[in-house]
Amino acid sequence: MNEKISILKFSVIPGITLGVIQIFLAVIVYVMGVDASEAGWQAYVSGIVSTIAMIFIFVINQKKYRDEINDGLLSLGEAVKIGVTIAVIAAVIYGIYNYLFMTVIEPDFAQNILDNAEQAMLEQNPDMSDEQLDMALGMASKFSSPAITVPLGIIGSAIIGLVISIITGLFVKKSDSPL
After folding, report:
1. What is the spatial distance between Cα 168 and Cα 164, in angstroms, rounded to a whole number?
2. Which letter does DSSP use for residue 174 in this model?
């Protein structure tokens, strides 16, 4: 048995790896010139690839922790802790990138989203009053700022990580009892 290390310490490198993969996918979509405010097929493919990467990284690292660190045993709780920790670390890494993207690389990004939202609202409801439009756009602007998108992204990633790690943990877990 190797020296017992904490799940947090164990999960740092896989979390950074997943975060870098997610950034790489976002950069590819950006370089392709896809308008991120309009979810095209490229964004869906990027999301699918990111999810597959998350599943792969969870399974590999849950097995690695079980076999190399934890004497061949892994509870569902430990598997979930590994997955959620990896997901949160990746989300923090991606959140830093997202903040830099929205404030330095593409500072007009949030405004472009609002402009597209305004256009879509007016197309769907041409009789919308200026007051209703201003209220809807005011709410949308609050939710498109980095101060909101980054924390929500971390929370969302933790929830997705929880669900995926429960599923992968059910397959990877191993106990010493026959039940």
Report:
1. 6
2. B
Residue 29 identity (one-letter amino acid): V
Torsion-angle region of residue 172: left (phi > 0), alpha (psi -120 to 50) or beta?
Answer: alpha
The Cα 68–Cα 61 span in angstroms is: 10
Supply 70's token pair: 């934890």
pLDDT in tens, 77-128: 999 999 999 999 999 999 999 999 988 988 887 777 778 777 877 888 888 7
- The token pair that represents 89 in the structure block: 């670390």
Quote the tokens at residue 17: 């790896």
Give the whole-angstrom CA distance, residue 132 versus residue 138: 10
Residues 48 and 29 sit within 8 Å (Cβ to Cβ): no
28's tokens: 């590819």
Q: How far apart are CA 133 and CA 162, in angstroms?
A: 37
Task: Compute the chain's Rg from CA coordinates.
Answer: 20
Domain residue spans of the chain: 7-107+146-172
How far apart, in whole angstroms, are the C-alpha atoms of residue 80 and residue 169? 6
- Distance in angstroms (rounded) separating the CA atoms of residues 55 and 46: 14
Token duo for residue 95? 């959140």
The two three-digit tokens of residue 117, written as one number: 């939202």
